[in-house]
Amino acid sequence: MKNFTLKSISLYIFFIFLLTACGEEKKSVVEETIRPVKFGKVIMSGDALSETFSGSAQSSKESKVSFKVSGTLTRLNVKVGDMVRKGQLLAKIDQTDYSVQYQQSVANNKTSETQIQSAKSQLINSKATYQRIEKLYENNSVSISEFEQAKSGLELAEASYNASLAQANASEKQVESAQNQVRYSNLIAPFSGVITAVMVEENELVGSGTPIATISAMNNPEISVGIPEIFISKIKKNQRVDIVFSSMSNQTFSGKVYEVAFSSLGGSTYPVTVRIDKPTEDIRPGMVADVHFSFSNGKEDIQKMVAPTAAVGEDSNGHFVFGLTKEGTNYLVKKKKIQIGKLTRAGFEIKSGLANGELVATAGLNTLLDGMKVRLLE
């Protein structure tokens, strides 16, 4: 009898343990199952026609830098991805020949200065001789031939002096030119930015105007968009747009049209440049972006609050949506009764029950429950 009692107690404890374990397992499964839902946003929208066109990001300022002189590349200080500042030395070519030319031009200039002094002294002497002969000629003390000779000597001295001045001026220009050649052997960054391409290697012979590297400015990135010819007449400078990058689909940037091309670059599309109002460092040249344009229909564009068409349901109590409120890392479903107006291009007009910017579920409305925890399906 005692053994039977102990056996019964052991079985009882085992069953309690088993039920507890199953309950904990079931509880953990329920907590981990958070249903994903598609969602949309309540926005303000007008009656204007809208279109979205694809484009790509580009730098607002880009330059292919090159030397103004030719020579052997002796130093290359940058590589792709390097940040550079305005005035920074990017590359250098062998300046030996240019330095020699500069020194020679300096020596020639000094010779010209010596010639000026000699010509000036000769001019002073010739002028004094002329003035003395002129007075004697007026007193009939010298012949006319002596007077003419003194006059010719003065004119020759003046011409020699003017020629030495011209030669000195040309010599100074040669010094300046030779000095520029030496300076041009250093390639300097014209503005601050990032190196996006390098086309040469050290010890290469590069010519004047040969691209060495490409610098792109980091601030004020732009979007280049190809607009079909049927829409280009509707695009105006300073027109507001919305921009979404494929790599940052959860963020919308605002911008405006900066340039509208008058002619196409071939084909039936016209290039349009859009500038971003508040760009971030994550935006880099080459990134793909969708640019959303709104075109007025000729009437006053009245803004209305609208919800996605798929988010609006209807039951015996009227129209409703399932609002999504953030709770921790997930969202809480809340059924909201709403009053709707007309169906627009952007969705149903909302007269009451929602606020601008609210998130709403857009799929599986018949399976959602008030108070259910969900996660957003990106």
Structural summary, described in words:
The protein has 378 residues and is of the alpha+beta class. The chain has three domains: 34-60 and 222-378, Elongation Factor Tu (Ef-tu), domain 3; 62-94 and 186-216, OB fold (Dihydrolipoamide Acetyltransferase, E2P); 96-184. The chain has helices at residues 2-32, 96-138, 144-184; strands at residues 35-37, 39-41, 43-45, 49-58, 62-66, 71-76, 83-84, 89-93, 186-188, 193-198, 205-206, 211-216, 222-228, 240-245, 252-260, 269-276, 288-295, 304-307, 313-315, 318-327, 330-337, 339-343, 348-352, 359-361, 373-376. A hairpin with a 6-residue loop joins β14 (240-245) and β15. α2 (96-138) packs antiparallel against α3 (144-184). The longest helix has 43 residues, at 96-138. The protein is elongated. The chain starts with a helix and ends with a strand. The model is unreliable at 25-30 (pLDDT under 50).
Poorly predicted regions? 25-30
Straight-line distance between termini: 66 Å
In terms of DSSP E residues, the strand content is 35-45%
CATH top level class name of the largest domain: Mainly Beta
Q: Could you report the average pLDDT, rounded to the nearest whole number?
A: 84
Radius of gyration, taken over Cα atoms and rounded to an integer in Å = 43 Å
SSE class: alpha+beta
- CATH fold naming of the largest domain: Elongation Factor Tu (Ef-tu), domain 3
Q: Output the helix-strand order.
A: HEEEEEEEEHHEEEEEEEEEEEEEEEEE
